[in-house]
């Protein structure tokens, strides 16, 4: 087989791969748009808002060519919600050749009614890969099962207030979503591109965290929740 034929076959293969990837992306966008419509949410294939201050904290402050796509917006339990695909690239070089790898995440954020201190919780493997997020010390809680399964970073007092026994139990039974309180946003993420089931699971985790925050924590930070909002201790 001549070099010209090999070159043509290579170009044909690359073109077919690009076509299949484009087709698969179109199908996924259509599925997410239908999923959004079924839940009364909006869908945008691109990003019109950005993610503001989130860029400074992992996984958002890493790499280059950062991009937000497939944005779903809506309201969950009276809280504004946004979920989207996020990617970044990391290029490494040995001095002669360079290699670029793309990392994908599914991200969901719920808007909170008050600005809260930073707090980050996630499975050990997630936070180990992301590094020392926020530069804060690990917090040990009363549950040894929880301490073995999750890594907690932030103010020890705030972590103990927010991570009540009931919330820890629910997180142990749920999916392995990493999440962070960042100002007035509660942000959760998973590695890879999310399907509809994973999006709902991530939303459910964030709902459980937000619903479990005691009323006295909200009041301490300038928000007086309606009666019945927040777990015991309010």
Rg estimate, integer Å: 21 Å
Assign a percent range to the helix content.
Answer: 25-40%
Query: How many beta-strand segments?
Result: 6
- Could you tell me how far the N terminus lies from the C terminus, measured between alpha carbons in angstroms? 77 Å
Q: What does the largest sheet look like?
A: 6 strands, antiparallel
Structural class: alpha+beta
Enumerate the spans where pLDDT stays under 50 for 5 or more consecutive residues: 131-136
Mean pLDDT: 83
Note the run of SSEs as H and E.
Answer: HEEEEHHEHHEHH
Strand content: 25-35%
For this structure, the quaternary state is single chain
In DSSP terms, counting alpha (H) and pi (I) runs of 4 or more, how many helices?
Answer: 7
Mass-distribution shape: globular
């Amino acid at each position: 087989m001549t070099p010209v034929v090999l070159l043509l076959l290579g170009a044909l293969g690359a073109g077919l791969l690009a076509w299949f990837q484009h087709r698969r992306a179109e199908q996924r966008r259509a599925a997410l748009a239908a999923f959004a419509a079924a839940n009364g949410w909006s869908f945008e294939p691109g990003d019109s808002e950005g993610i503001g201050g989130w860029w400074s904290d992992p996984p958002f402050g890493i790499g280059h060519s950062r991009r937000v796509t497939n944005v779903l917006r809506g309201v969950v339990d009276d809280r504004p919600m946004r979920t989207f695909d996020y990617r970044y690239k990391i290029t490494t070089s040995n001095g002669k050749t360079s290699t670029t790898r793309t990392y994908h995440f599914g991200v969901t954020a719920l808007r909170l009614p008050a600005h809260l201190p930073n707090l980050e919780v996630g499975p050990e493997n997630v936070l180990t890969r992301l590094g020392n997020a926020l530069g804060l010390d690990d917090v040990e809680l009363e549950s040894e099962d929880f301490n073995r399964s999750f890594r907690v970073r932030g103010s020890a007092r705030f972590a103990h207030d927010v991570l009540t026994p009931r919330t820890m139990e629910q997180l142990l039974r749920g999916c392995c979503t990493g999440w962070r309180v960042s100002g007035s946003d509660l942000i959760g993420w998973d590695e890879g591109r999310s399907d509809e089931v994973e999006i709902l699971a991530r939303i459910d985790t964030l709902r459980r965290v937000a619903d479990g925050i005691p009323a006295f924590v909200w009041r301490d930070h300038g928000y007086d929740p309606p009666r019945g909002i927040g777990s015991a201790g309010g």
